[in-house]
Write a structure and sequence with these properties.
Elements (H helix, E strand, L loop, with lengths): L3 E6 L3 H10 L4 E7 L11 E5 H6 L8 E3 L1 E7 L5 E8 L6 E5 H13 L4 E5 L3 E7 L2 E6 L3 E4 L1 E4 L6 H6 L5 E15 L7 E7 L2 E9 L2 E9 L7 H12 L7 E2 L4 E9 L4 E2 L2 E3 L5 E2 L7 H21 L7 H28 L5 H14 L3 H11 L10
Parallel strand pairs: 1-2, 1-12, 2-8, 5-14, 12-20
Antiparallel strand pairs: 3-7, 4-7, 5-6, 9-10, 10-11, 13-16, 13-17, 13-18, 14-15, 15-16, 18-21, 19-20
Helix pairs in contact: 1-3, 1-6, 6-7
């Protein structure tokens, strides 16, 4: 029987991760992108949960483990006080890696797979039906596929032309400022997050002498001068890091909330950021994509094993039915939590601090929070 073909359109992190995960299946895959650069540099990092890391074959990729997490709130005179901490008997809570290093690692894995064909610098001009399959037209040729997976984001023309549906979306009216800093070496195994009066300041360890900084700030409050921002970052780091030096420039990204209503069309599946986008304060964006990928891979394996069409409506509707309700509840829950931690939400500040301080006293409550962040993890209720 002839192998079924998958076309993954999009050379970003979600497209690469999808190609890497599905490369283990008995299918042929074309990974297509107009801009595909394995040397892509970015200040951004991803935090991956224990179970999502186990799902991927990242044994040769150097992730930095986080064994602890601490939350702080801003007090008087720019001081910080701890309101929550999490440590699981020396168990690693999650792992952190720079986007650029993860992309290089996935590229290397994909290049070793004979059933994955990289179509770099290719422009998709049209997607049309061709009998029972879908035909993707490029500038100089065309190919037919059983399944097309769009990993090109919600704002791409390709997505908009095919999926013109109602979606729940809004702007957080915030900007995330990301950078990576070097500093004096110490046992750097704790992720820290500070809830400021004017933003959220996060420090994610990348090594004993390197840390990722993610600072989310109201658009109206952000300084345009990078030198001033770097000076403020150094001040905020004073309680946690010594001899801070910036490894690279600052990177800014607008933050939006987004939930897709329609997940698929005829043999076309939306994926990644085109399905959902949440605030980065909980570090769940890429983890949600990986959970979706687990579901998709399982469904496709079953279809292939039974000799069924992987791009059929039954196949895609099964994926939608399994993931959409979970993603909706999860996204709305994170959005609610974000509103509770919103910098200018002063009525909630004292209540939030009291609530988190009390939760911090309960191992049972902390375990439940950890299970929400990593749903596949289960603890005994006595822990």
């Amino acid at each position: 029987m002839k192998k079924q073909k998958i076309c993954i359109i999009g050379g970003g992190l979600s497209g690469l991760a999808t190609a890497s995960a599905l490369a283990d299946l008995d299918v042929d895959i074309d990974l297509v992108s107009a801009k595909m650069n394995q040397n892509l540099f970015s200040n951004r990092t991803v935090a991956i949960s224990q179970n999502n890391l186990s799902f991927f074959d990242f044994t040769k990729t150097k992730f930095w483990p986080c064994k602890k997490m601490k939350l702080f709130s801003q007090g008087k005179e720019e001081s910080f006080f701890k309101i929550f901490d999490l440590e699981k008997n020396n168990r690693k809570i999650f792992y952190v890696i720079e986007n650029s290093k993860l992309i290089k690692s996935i590229f290397k894995k994909i290049n070793e797979k004979k059933n994955v064909n990289l179509k770099a610098d290719e422009m998709v001009t049209k997607i049309d039906s061709s009998g029972l399959l879908k035909k993707v037209e490029f500038k100089k040729h065309s190919s037919k596929y059983n399944l097309i997976i769009l990993c090109v984001g919600k704002n791409s023309n390709l997505t908009k032309n095919i999926f013109n549906d109602n979606s729940l979306q809004s702007s957080y009216e915030e900007v995330s400022i990301t950078t990576i800093v070097n500093h004096t070496a110490f046992k750097n195994d704790t992720a820290k997050q500070v809830f400021l009066d004017k933003g959220i300041f996060a420090l994610l360890p990348l090594s004993n002498s390197k840390t990722s900084i993610v600072w989310t700030v109201d658009k109206n409050l952000i300084q345009k001068n990078d030198l001033i921002i770097k000076k403020n970052i150094k001040i905020l780091c004073n309680d946690f890091l010594k001899n801070v030096k910036f490894k690279n420039n600052l990177e800014r990204n607008n933050l939006n909330f987004f939930i897709r209503e329609k997940y698929y069309d005829d043999r076309i599946l939306l994926f990644g950021d085109a399905l959902h986008a949440v605030h980065p304060f909980a570090g769940q964006g890429f983890n949600m994509i990986l959970r979706d990928l687990k579901n998709l891979k399982k469904i496709l394996i079953e279809r292939i094993n039974y000799g069924l069409d992987i791009g059929s409506t039954d196949s895609l509707s099964e994926f939608s039915d399994q993931t959409k309700p979970r993603n909706f509840v999860y996204s709305m829950g994170l959005d609610f939590l974000r509103s509770c931690f919103k910098p200018n939400n002063k009525p909630f500040k004292d209540l939030r601090n009291i609530m988190m301080t009390n939760i911090n006293k309960s191992d049972y409550a902390k375990n439940r929070i950890y299970e929400i962040a990593d749903p596949d993890i289960k603890f005994n209720t006595t822990e």
